[in-house]
Structure formats: structure tokens, C-alpha cells
Design brief:
single chain; alpha/beta; Phosphorylase Kinase, domain 1; Rossmann fold; Dimethylsulfoxide Reductase, domain 2; 6 domains; 7-stranded mixed beta sheet; 7-stranded antiparallel beta sheet; 32 helices; 37 strands; metal-binding; oxidoreductase activity
């Protein structure tokens, strides 16, 4: 292998938990491919997973990674480089002193579902066992806590009862509140394969938007945002009315059905159809399909969880399964899809403010005593700690003095960014333990602790189907980085010394010792893994829990015997009552804003945002609106609009989406102020509300009431160009502060083999020449490197066009005032077309593209760099008489262009394009 070696690891993105084979040369990752032996993905990877090696490119990493500790002693000063010895000592002293003066609850820990289970365990023990505070919560609070609460209220434990194999046995798949094709693409490939093998398999999708997942459905229930409880109760009403419930199962294995039955009597088809905004016929069809299905499998995610009634939504869906006996058998069950790679592992160790290790309840004195005995402490505090939103409110109020943040970016991801940023400014000490120093939160950190990340870490993660995967580092730790558990243990031991403790609660020399202690905490619990070891995981591969001592395998699905981990052994129906969204649309804020994922980006983009080609499918921030709403407001595609909620405002380009219903709008969750801002904006979460579910404390990130007004900003500026691979992220980071100088600003990457940076701004009036020169210098259009730059300047009209040409090709362009030539100049630069034949056209103040040049447009297939225009051309040349079925056309495109033949993430979109370009659809539109 020419000095190359291959190692097994796990993808660090969504909760599917795909196995990855990583190729390295000992110093860098040279390639990745799916692990064909891993039961989560059998060799498949999505666009994000298949570009993991690009996110680990050393030339990019050295620009974005935190590689040594940094510290400042006084606010307002820049952080300076420090040693681990002085940094850890300083933290231990500050934390100890603060606890002595203000009590243990003056400290807060905000950690992450991207930590490994061993990291999570140590942080949990540090907070609850050593310091004596339950103020430790995680960004999993933002994605999975409603699922946790829903499972516990109904089934008795936080344990998804189904597994991925159930997709192959289901006769009905009900997807609710999840764009699975984007959020869990490899799982969606499995759904596609199951439907191909079994044409009788039906799929229902409940989603306000007509997403790529919804387009594929046999039935799309385009419910109004937040009406899920009404939908599920209405389906149960119909199942009762048409005798589609399993009364024998209800009698033998459940309790509480009588109260729920009285409640759902009121959820008549007309009431539910009117409440949800769907037809009665579709509601009846959905209920019948579900009730009559031999095996119904529900898959759900943030559309249910991120809600002020998130727990009720989860419980209402589980009620439907219990009432019809659709649980504990192949192909059936309520299956919550985990958002992050190890949110499940964090739940296992009790890494939430209201939980303890081994799925124990903090409110249970016996459970607290068990954990105290295991840890060797007198007691564990009984009062639940502050959850995510509550924690930052407590910091803003001055109740929490020190905030330790690990592996997450709350200055991007939490709702109501005004509150969050005020809290970070108010805290006496902000500690950020992070692999990337370019996140929005990093600017608030008084201490930066450089942590290892994917490919360098060692430990275990648990995926959505309760499957634990063990992996080892494939690269050495860069710079002075340390593993997350090592950082926490070092500070913890120093605190112990300052407190005068003899011995240590943290005797760990390696991750296996931590994992073994965690394993012991599960003994006798629903998630018992006492039969597992690192050796078994290494020799036999990933395993599902429970896997108790003496077992030879884990359990694929739970509750097959109808016995549940409740006091009575019976599952409990929850009397769910529909409650309107916390912030309904009204005359002042008439639009319902939802948020969600892009296909090729991940969370706050600290990792995917370093890979230029992952911007090719969705290149820049935008708010998606229904065409009807845009036409009514005289808004054209690309026009800038003010999107304003009761908390803040962000200017964004508007684009029409045929997936949108009138009165609704959508912004991708990823666009934080690292990529879009302006004088008054802080990214998408400047708009979202911090209202949360009273049971799960999960915030309502999925819905906010907003108004959308056209932004009258006549002056525009745009600069884009290639940057050296070891400079591109530095250029982008240097440009971010400049966004604040304009009413609107955005800064993203583009390119594939080469990396480009794009900066866009808009304002009421032209920017000063000095400011533009500073920006253009970063593109080498001004300053010492600008020799040979072609220039057109019209000071009277405020227009300018500056172009740098290298080796006969475009290298950088800036357009001020009139930016209409962007549509071809950027494509010309990316295509690396020779410019010699263009002559004066390069500088003529016109938007006209060179004759014969056709811009490629948006990339649909990232694996093979296939653009929309290529698909259009191929379809327009298709012999529809011979190749008319969508499946036939797709196969033809895959053979001709290769699109959709690798990871498959683009297949749903290609299917949509096939339908739109078919002669029948064109004829229908013409008519």
C-alpha cells in the first residue's frame, strides 16, 4: 500500500453511526470509504461522511484547529499562549475559589453529543461527584431530550425499541418530523432499498414542507407546524372508530388507556383536518394504513423533538403504537432517530442536568445512593441542574459565575442569540474546550483548551439503534491537543488537591478504565452492558445493548415479551392534549418560520465548513418562501429581505421553494454568524425562541413567528477568488469581522480541487473606498500583490469591477454597485476558462455572458460534480418513448453521468428533476 495503512473508525456526524475505513500515511488522512462489515451502513457513506478526509486535510486544519492552550486573565485583553500546567492550575484555582465563595451551583458545564462516552462519563462525575452540582447539560438537550422524556413517560426507559433491520420487515414506514433523506441519508438508502424489494411497502411522511423525503412518500401529510399531537390523536380516534386497535395487547401490556380514549374522542376528522391543515381523506387514509399494517415502523426526529410540546408529540406517537400493538415485533415500533453521533452515549452516562449514570433518575434517592456508592462519594446532589436554556439565563443573571463549554458552539446553536451572547459576556470565566478556534463561541472564551477530534480520539460511541462501536485513533494528536477526558481529569485532580482530598475519584490511566466503570454503572439496568468489553467490541465488532453478563449477543429489539421497565411492568398511555405552538403567527408576525438541515452540511459547520465542495449544493444562506408569498410582496429570487422575530432580525436572500406552503418560511439551521450577519444580525438563531417543553426542557427551535419585508439596499458588493489551500480559511476568518460593517454580509467557500472564498455585502449606500480596499487586499486585488489587476471604476455611478488574472485565467473578482455579471464571472472562474479571447468584455459594465459560455449552475451530485444543467441537457435529450418510467430514466442518468451511483444522497433530488423535465409535466404546465 506504498506506506499507507487502513484503520476502522466511526463517522462523526449523525446518529446513524456509520463505520468508516480510514486510509492514512501516518500523518494525514489520505482517504475514507464505508466499512462494508459495519452493520449500520454496510459500506455506504453520505456526502458528508465521504469527505471526512478533506475535513482532516492538514493544510486546512492548521488554519482552523486550536493547537495549544490560550488564556487571558482580564476581559478585553487578547488571549495569549499558555502551557497546560499554568492553564489547568489556573482553572482548578478559579473553580475551587468560586465554589468556596458561591457554592457548587455557581459552576456550569455545557457539553456535547459529539463527545465520546468516556469523555461524557468523566465530565458527569466531575460535576456531580466532585463539585456537587447538577449544572451539567449538553447540546443533546437541543435535539433528543423530548425523545428521552417521551420514552420514559410511556415505555419506562430511554431506550429506542426498534433497530435498523426493522426497515426491512416493515409494511408501513411513518416518518414524522424528519427529512430523513437529508438528516440520516444512509438510513434513507436502506428505506429506498426496502421499498424497491417490496413494492407493497407504503411510506407516509408528516412534514410541513414537501421535502425530498416527502416527495418520495406514498402519502404526504403537509401539516401546519406544531400540530403533530392533533394528528396522532386524530389517527388514534379513527383507529378506535374503525376497530383497528389491538384491545388484547392494550389489556395485557398497558395501563391508562381509558383516560386517553376519552380525550381522543374529541379529535374528530374534521377538527383534526382543520387544525392540521390537511384533508380529511388524507387523515383517514393515514389512520387506516397505520391501523391495518401488519408491521408499522415510525421514524422521527427534530420536527417532534424541538418543540414546546415535544414530549407530548413523542408520547402521542408512542400511544398510537401501543394502541395498535405495533411494538416489540419485527418491522414495528416508535424509533427516534438520534441527531448526533453520541447523543445516545451521553444519555447512557446520565450526561444531562436531570439524569444519573445508567438511566437513573435524579429524583430517586435509591438511584442517587447507588451512584454515590459507585463513585465513592458521600452523596450526589438531589436538585436538578440547569438545562441548556436555563443555564445560559442563569449565567446572564449572575447565578452561574463560571461556564465550561466542551465540543459545542452555543453562540451559534442555541436559540435567542441575544440572550446567549449577553450571558457569555456576563460570565466571570468562560472556558471553551474545543478542536476548532474559529467557532462563534471562541471569541467569548477566556480560556481555550485545545482538544482532539475525529481520527485522533479513542473510545466508544452509541448510535440510534443502541449499537456501541469501539474505535482507536488513526492519527497522532496535533500540536498540544489533549483528549477531552484527559483535560477534565487533569483539572479534576488539581481541584481534589486544593480541596485536600486524599486519593482521587479519577484514577484513570486510559479510556478503557473509564469505560469499565461506566459498564459497572449499568449492571442490572435496562441498558446493562456488563457482558461487553473492549476486547469483544474489537474482535466481534459493534454490539447492541442490553448485553448483560452471560449473554452472547445484544438485543436487536426491545419489549418482545410485552414487559416494560415500569413499576407495573406495563407500558403507560400518556393523556396527550394538543397545545398550539408557543409563538403563533399573527398580524404583526404572519409567517411561520421553520428550521432544518441542509443535505451536505452539519450543525454549526465548524468541520464541514472547512470543505469547499460541501457548499456546492447550497452555496449561501437563504430564506425559502412560497412563490405566492414572494409574488405578493414583489420579491424576486435573490432579493434581500428582513426576517424579523420578536427577538432579533437577520437580512437574508429570499428564494422560492416549491416545497413551501404559503405563510411559511424556512432557513437552514447551520447559518450562524460565522457565515452570515450584518450590523444587526447574528445568524438564524437570532430569530428562534427559547420557549421550551415543560417536561423535556427542549427549546422550540423548529418554529418562530416572523415578518418578512423586502430590504431596500441598493448598493451591493461582491468579491470572490481562489486562495492557496493553506490560506483559504485564514482569509475567510479575516473577512468575518467585515460583515458587521454592512447591513448584510455573508462569507462562504466554493470550489472543489481548488478552494475559493466568497464575500458578499449590501447596504443603503456605498462603502468607503478604504474599507473596500481592506477587503480587496485579502483577495490580492489591492495592495502589494495587486500588480496586473484589471480595473474598471465609475465613481459617479458607484460601480467598479476589479479582476485578477493569473496564467491566463480568472483568479479573483470584485464587483461593486452593479454585481449582475456575477452569474457568469463566478462560473467562468470555477471552470478555469482562458480569458484571452474575452478582451474588453471582462471590464465592460454589462451582465452579458461571453457568447457560447453556459454557466453550470448548482451542483446536484457532489460525489461526481454533476450540475443541474448537465441533468437538464441529458433529460432534454432523453428518448422518453423508450425510457419513460422514472426508474428507467434514473438508471440511464446514472450510467451516463454517474450521478446518484455512489453515496446516493442526490437520488431524491434527481427523481424530482426527472419528473419536472418529463414531457407529461411540461405539457401540464403549458396547459
Amino acid at each position: 500500500m506504498n506506506g499507507l495503512r487502513e484503520s476502522k473508525a466511526t463517522c462523526c456526524y449523525c446518529g446513524v453511526g456509520c463505520g468508516v475505513i480510514v486510509e492514512t500515511d501516518g500523518q494525514r488522512v489520505t482517504g475514507v470509504r464505508g466499512d462494508p462489515d459495519h452493520p449500520a451502513n454496510f459500506g455506504r457513506l453520505c456526502t458528508k461522511g465521504s469527505t471526512l478526509h478533506l475535513s482532516a486535510d492538514p493544510l486546512l486544519q492548521q488554519q482552523a484547529r486550536a493547537l495549544h492552550p490560550e488564556m487571558r486573565l482580564h476581559r478585553g485583553e487578547p488571549r495569549g499562549r499558555a502551557s497546560w500546567e499554568e492553564t489547568s492550575g489556573h482553572l482548578a484555582a478559579r473553580i475551587t475559589d468560586t465554589v468556596r465563595r458561591h457554592g457548587p451551583d455557581s459552576i456550569g458545564f455545557y457539553i456535547s453529543g459529539q463527545l465520546l462516552t468516556e469523555d461524557y462519563y468523566v465530565f458527569n462525575k466531575l460535576a456531580k461527584g466532585l463539585l456537587g452540582t447538577n449544572n451539567i447539560d449538553t447540546n443533546s438537550r437541543l435535539c433528543m431530550s423530548s425523545a428521552v422524556a417521551g420514552y420514559k413517560q410511556t415505555l419506562g426507559a430511554d431506550a429506542p425499541p426498534a433497530c435498523y433491520e426493522d426497515i426491512d420487515h416493515a409494511s408501513l414506514i411513518f416518518i414524522a418530523g424528519s427529512n430523513t433523506a437529508y438528516a440520516h441519508p444512509i438510513l434513507y438508502r436502506r428505506i429506498e432499498a426496502a421499498r424497491k424489494r417490496n413494492p407493497a411497502l407504503k411510506m407516509i411522511v408528516a412534514d410541513p414542507r414537501r421535502t425530498d423525503t416527502a416527495r418520495d412518500a406514498d402519502l404526504h401529510l403537509a401539516i401546519l407546524p406544531g400540530t403533530d399531537v392533533a394528528l396522532f390523536n386524530g389517527m388514534l380516534h379513527l383507529c378506535l372508530w374503525e376497530d383497528l386497535i389491538d384491545q388484547a395487547y392494550i389489556d395485557a401490556h398497558t395501563e391508562g388507556f381509558a383516560d386517553l380514549k376519552r380525550t381522543v374522542r374529541d379529535y374528530t376528522p374534521k377538527f383534526v383536518a382543520d387544525t392540521c391543515g390537511i384533508s380529511e381523506d388524507d387523515l383517514v387514509k393515514a389512520a387506516r394504513w397505520f391501523g391495518e399494517a401488519p408491521a408499522a415502523l415510525s421514524l422521527y426526529c427534530q420536527g417532534l423533538n424541538q418543540s414546546s410540546s415535544g414530549t407530548a408529540k413523542n408520547a402521542a406517537l408512542i400511544n398510537l403504537h401501543l394502541a395498535t400493538g405495533q411494538i416489540g415485533k419485527p418491522g414495528a415500533g416508535p424509533f427516534s432517530l438520534t441527531g448526533q453521533p453520541n447523543a445516545m452515549g451521553g444519555r447512557e452516562v446520565g450526561g444531562l442536568a436531570n439524569l444519573l449514570s445508567g438511566h437513573r433518575d435524579m429524583a430517586n434517592p435509591g438511584h442517587r445512593a447507588e451512584v454515590a456508592k459507585l463513585w465513592g462519594v458521600d452523596d450526589v446532589p438531589a436538585t436538578p441542574g440547569k438545562t441548556a436554556v436555563e443555564m445560559f439565563e442563569a449565567v446572564r443573571k449572575g447565578e452561574i459565575k463560571i461556564l465550561w463549554i466542551a465540543c459545542t458552539n452555543p453562540a451559534q446553536s442555541l436559540p435567542d442569540q441575544k440572550l446567549v451572547q449577553e450571558a457569555l459576556q456576563k460570565a466571570e470565566l468562560v472556558i471553551l474546550q474545543e478542536a476548532y478556534r474559529t467557532t462563534a463561541t471562541a471569541q467569548f472564551a477566556d480560556v481555550l483548551l485545545p482538544a482532539t477530534t475525529w481520527a485522533e480520539k479513542e473510545g466508544t460511541v452509541t448510535n440510534s439503534e443502541r449499537r456501541i462501536t469501539r474505535f482507536k485513533p488513526v492519527l497522532p494528536r496535533p500540536g498540544e491537543t489533549r483528549h477531552d477526558w484527559e483535560i477534565a481529569v487533569d483539572v479534576a485532580r488539581r481541584i481534589e488537591a486544593l480541596l485536600g482530598r486524599t486519593g482521587t475519584l479519577f484514577p484513570y490511566a486510559d479510556v478503557e478504565q473509564i469505560w469499565n466503570e461506566h459498564r459497572e454503572s449499568t449492571r442490572g439496568r435496562d441498558l446493562d452492558i456488563t457482558g461487553l468489553s473492549y476486547r469483544i467490541l474489537e474482535e466481534q465488532g459493534p454490539q447492541q445493548w442490553p448485553f448483560p453478563e452471560g449473554a452472547t449477543a445484544g438485543r436487536a429489539r426491545l419489549y418482545e415479551d410485552g414487559v416494560f421497565p415500569t413499576a407495573s411492568g406495563r407500558a403507560k398511555f400518556v393523556n396527550t392534549v394538543y397545545q398550539p405552538v408557543a409563538e403563533p403567527a399573527d398580524a404583526r408576525y404572519p409567517f411561520r418560520l421553520t428550521t432544518g438541515r441542509l443535505r451536505d452540511q452539519w450543525h454549526g459547520m465548524s468541520r464541514t465548513g472547512t470543505v469547499a465542495q460541501l457548499f456546492s449544493h447550497a452555496a449561501e444562506p437563504a430564506v425559502v418562501m412560497a412563490r405566492l408569498d414572494m409574488d405578493r410582496r414583489l420579491i424576486r429570487d435573490g432579493d434581500l429581505v428582513h426576517v424579523t422575530s420578536r427577538r432579533g432580525s437577520q437580512i437574508l436572500p429570499a428564494i422560492a421553494g416549491d416545497d413551501m406552503r404559503a405563510g411559511q418560511a424556512f432557513v437552514a439551521m447551520h447559518w450562524g454568524e460565522e457565515y452570515v450577519s450584518g450590523r444587526g444580525g447574528h445568524g438564524v438563531n437570532a430569530l428562534t425562541t427559547s420557549a421550551f417543553c415543560p417536561s423535556s426542557k427542549q427549546p422550540e427551535l423548529k418554529h418562530a413567528a416572523v415578518k418578512i419585508l423586502k430590504a431596500e439596499l441598493p448598493w451591493r458588493f461582491l468579491a470572490f477568488g481562489w486562495a492557496a489551500r493553506d490560506e483559504a480559511l485564514k482569509v475567510q476568518a479575516a473577512l468575518r469581522p467585515y460583515m458587521r460593517h454592512f447591513a448584510y454580509g455573508s462569507c462562504t467557500l466554493f470550489g472543489r480541487e481548488k478552494v475559493g472564498v466568497l464575500f458578499r455585502a449590501a447596504d443603503d449606500y456605498p462603502a468607503s473606498p478604504e474599507l473596500l480596499r481592506e477587503i480587496e487586499t485579502l483577495f490580492r486585488l489591492e495592495g502589494a500583490d495587486s500588480a496586473g489587476v484589471l480595473r474598471y471604476d465609475d465613481a459617479r455611478r458607484g460601480n467598479a469591477r476589479h479582476i485578477r488574472v493569473e496564467d491566463g485565467r480568472l483568479a479573483a473578482v470584485s464587483l461593486a454597485g452593479d454585481t449582475s455579471a456575477e452569474h457568469w464571472l463566478k462560473d467562468y472562474l470555477q471552470a478555469e476558462q482562458p480569458v484571452a479571447a474575452l478582451g474588453r468584455l471582462l471590464l465592460v459594465p454589462s451582465s452579458k455572458a461571453p457568447q457560447g459560455f453556459k454557466p453550470r449552475g448548482r451542483i446536484v451530485c457532489n460525489c461526481f460534480n454533476v450540475a443541474e444543467t448537465q441533468l437538464f441537457d441529458a433529460l432534454d435529450g432523453n428518448d422518453w418513448a423508450k425510457c419513460s418510467e422514472p426508474g428507467q430514466v434514473l438508471a440511464s442518468l446514472q450510467q451516463q453521468l454517474k450521478c446518484g451511483s455512489n453515496c446516493g444522497s442526490c437520488v431524491p433530488e434527481i427523481k424530482k428533476i426527472i419528473v419536472e423535465r418529463s414531457p407529461a409535466e411540461k405539457a401540464a404546465k403549458a396547459a
